[in-house]
Amino acid sequence: MAAWILATVVGAAADNPNPPAASPAPPTPPPEPVTLLADLRAAPARGFVNGSWQGRVATTHSGLLVQGHKGADGSGELGQDFEAPRDLGKATFFEVALGVGSQNEVPEFTLAFDDATETQYVARFRIEQLVPDQPVWLRVRRADFKLNNWQGNKAGAVIDWTKIIRWHLQGDWSKAKPFQVVFIALRERH
């Protein structure tokens, strides 16, 4: 009986010159625009390392490892000068992929951007509660960046997000404790 029903349905479909139209697939939302600013599984072109991280950053298959067990503490940074100014004015978020090492004792780090006039804006990320050796993406809103109070930044200076020349990943310069983090990537999300 089931075979007869199946044959009848299949036969009816073959005999019908105007089969019912298939329902359209539900619309898929457009993907969120994401732009990779730096893949740190290789040393970035035009990259730099300063402070206690100098000579203590290793390029690994996972990313740039700041080696706290070799003397890197919160008073260091790494970063990259862009070949030409980048327009980050449409970014809603900035995201950093990283993993914290078991010997890390610094509770936070800073992401900084400089514009063409050397005005620097910064945002901080808390990392003290991350599980060691478990990479994560951390996100900060562009609106949460604030003027850095050093390096000759004038009070009230406003960064030009359309002319960014450099990014930095910095430790917490007030902490002279081991900083052990592997930085994997940096991206912007619209």
Which descriptors apply to this entry?
190 residues, mainly beta, disordered N terminus, 7% helix, globular, single chain, 6-stranded antiparallel sheet, 1 helix
What does this protein structure show overall?
This protein is mainly beta. Helix content is 7%, strand content 39%. It has one helix at 2-15, and strands spanning 34-39, 47-51, 57-59, 64-66, 76-86, 93-100, 108-115, 120-126, 136-141, 146-147, 164-170, 181-189. Strands 1, 3, 4, 6, 9 and 12 form a 6-stranded antiparallel β-sheet that branches. Strands 2-5-11-7-8-10 form a 6-stranded antiparallel β-sheet, with no helix packed on it. A hairpin with a 4-residue loop joins β7 (108-115) and β8 (120-126). The protein is globular, with a radius of gyration of 25 Å. The N and C termini lie far apart (58 Å). The model is unreliable at 1-13 (pLDDT under 50).
Topology (elements, then pairings):
Elements: H1 2-15, E1 34-39, E2 47-51, E3 57-59, E4 64-66, E5 76-86, E6 93-100, E7 108-115, E8 120-126, E9 136-141, E10 146-147, E11 164-170, E12 181-189
Antiparallel strand pairs: 1-12, 2-5, 3-4, 4-12, 5-11, 6-9, 6-12, 7-8, 7-11, 8-10
In angstroms, what is the radius of gyration? 25 Å
Unreliable segments of 5+ consecutive residues: 1-13
Number of strands: 12
The major sheet is characterized as: 6 strands, antiparallel
Share of residues in helices = under 10%
Taking the alpha carbons of the first and last residues, their distance comes to 58 Å
- How much is the average pLDDT? 88
Which descriptor suits the 3D outline? Answer: globular
Number of helices: 1
**Could you tell me the strand content as a percent range?**
35-45%
Could you spell the SSE succession in H and E letters? Answer: HEEEEEEEEEEEE
What would you call the structural class? mainly beta
